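input
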Amino acid sequence: MKNNKGFQVLANTVMLIETLLVILPFLLLFMSSITSESTLLTYGYSFFPKEFSLESFNYIFRSSNKIFTAYTMTILITAIGTVLNVALSTLMAYPLAQKRMPFRKAMTFFVFFTMLFSGGLVPSYILWTRYLVVKDTIWGMILPSYLVSGMNVLLIRTYFANSVPEALYEAAHIDGAGQFRTFLSIALPLGKPILVTMGTFSALTYWNDWTNGLYYITKRRDLYGIQNVLNQMVTDLQFLSSSSMSGRASEELARVPSTGVQMAIAFVAILPVLAIFPFLQKYYQKGISLGAVKG
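output
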């Protein structure tokens, strides 16, 4: 009994330390974003700043229309891209999990091969812009690079093959269900944990992406996501800081909280992810008791 209590105390202590290691950087980021520029430059980053200021957030939201438009585009792009990524990855992974499928090993190797080698940036850019014509369209923010992930396909395939009892597939076939019916009634309900996990990874990838906007959006700046807009703000600040200006322009620049703005930009970009992630925890805790086994 004493050993169990000692282990419980040790485990709780370790988990508390790990939790603090995760939370404290975000807390420091937020505190830095509401610290005055002079305090940051004089005393550095602190959990307890000597002077608070919301000037960094005011600077970001002065162009509120641009920020809200970018947030709307990012949410739309993330939602469409995640649904397409999970759907296509699952539809490809399920046949690869069936041991009786012809050329199963060859197709699995082909998927694995794409994780090691790619066509390169220039051929991909020519393909997407010249032949698929996604430049300056919303599809240029969705389709290139992230539509189907070889890693997602292999992880979902492994889950379907190892975590879902093969007897369930056989029972469904005996009852007269075809492959598509088995996929909808057996594989999808039991695969919800891995699908939510892969969907989370895909959503984070789309949310944090700024390269597609850089490569494929040149004229339609209204299609920019939040990462592109915030990255443009950082670039503008760096350009202004490195420029030699005099008079009123120099005075205006001196009042811009450049360090605090960068902290605020990082906080604004990550806040929605932090807000949504706890609601997905329940799906990670549900195992194979879902779906057909439970029913």
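quick obs: The longest helix spans residues 64-97.
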